[in-house]
Amino acid sequence: MGITVSAPAKLFLLGEHAVVFDGTCIVTAVNSRLSVSLERSDEALLTINAPDVRLTNYQKPMSAISEQFDKADASSFIRSSVAVFAERCAFDGGLSISTRSEFKREYGIGSSSAVVAATLFGLSQLFGAEFSHEELLHMGFEAIQRVQQLGSGADLAAAIYGGTLYYENRSPRTVVALPVENLPLVVIYSGYKASTVDYVWEVGKLRDRHPEVINPIIEVMLTIVEQGRLAIEEANWQTFGDLMNIQHGLLHALGVDTSSLAHIVLRAREAGAWGAKLSGAGGGDCAIILTDNPHIGTILEDMNDRIAKLDIQPNAEGVRLEI
Ligand code: MEV
Q: In a designed cystine with 257, which of 102, 142, 192, 252 is the match (CB 3.0 to 4.6 A)?
């Protein structure tokens, strides 16, 4: 008997990049989900079917699942999650795992973190291990580090806990659920996919070259997160929008803005949005707009064929059992 679980995608509201340097951020889970079905098998083999990342009947002996993790190898995040779980909760035989995503990987809204969160949550359900969200976060962080050696874990926290979170990437990692009801957010795909890892590296190198300039920018970003936390708690969209605009300007200064993202952001502000910014690592992926203008999607989609309004809402539920 197998089970199916799911985890949500995520968006960064404030604090991206700054959170990587032992910082803080605000992230929200969105109502577009990735499901993972898991079943035990007698043979000691890991079988993966993940059509969204073109894996069909991929098989690896359980004894070899930790070989050669690579972020370009679509099986890596599932293999590393199973490996981390098996170290804490040993089991005999093998596993068959299949995934299905409601969102496209190129949107850059957290497919890796959702797959890790859902796989670990699914395994804990399958084996009755009952790990807390905090333990899942700890294990998921480890699984992601084994594959890509970097990342704040904020996207993973959103996938596990759900809702809108204030996240502290310091030891011990802290997650605070923010009281958000109606966050008036519109999500726009910029038409281009970017590699988070490459952009995190680039920002790190820029900081190494110009620490006196980049460190104060990161400090201001962290102040923005603190102010943003207060604004979101008070549902003060004017202030939250100002802070989004300033964060976008600072991300531009870090070199992660693109012409497509910049156009979306500026056009949204001209159309009267409270705020607009890129969300996540930059270089492409999505922009977010804080607005109550119901026509903003059409205005932006008319600019360019590649741009698309995504039909997703923030503040969604975290990992959950489906069947
Ligand atoms: C990427 O979605 C967000 C970054 O802050 C990286 C991270 O938090 O791991 C750029």
A: 252
Question: How far, in Å, from the CA of 201 to the mean position of ligand 1?
Answer: 11
pLDDT score recorded for residue 311: 95
Provide the residue type at 282 as one letter. Answer: G
Would you say the CB of residue 152 lies under 6 angstroms from ligand 1?
A: yes
Q: Is 103 close to ligand 1, i.e. is its CB under 6 Å away?
A: no
Q: Verify whether ligand 1 is closer than 6 Å to residue 15 (CB atom).
A: no
Q: Does ligand 1 have an atom closer than 6 angstroms to the CB of 274?
A: no
Q: CA-CA distance, 174 to 141, in Å (whole number)?
A: 13
If one residue of 17, 111, 288 were mutated to test the ligand 1 pocket, choosing by the most ligand atoms within 8 A of its CB, it would be 17
pLDDT in tens, 132-180: 999 999 999 999 999 999 999 999 999 999 999 999 999 889 999 999 9
226 burial (CB, 10 Å; 0-12 / 13-18 / 19+) is: middle
**Amino acid symbol at 115:** V
Q: CA angle, corner 221, sides to 218 and 225, nearest 5?
A: 140
* pLDDT, tens digit (0-9, with 9 covering 90-100), for 69-122: 988 888 999 999 999 999 999 999 999 999 999 999 889 999 999 999 999 999
CA of 155 to the centre of ligand 1 (A): 7
Residue 311 annotated as catalytic:
no
pTM for the complete prediction?
A: 0.96
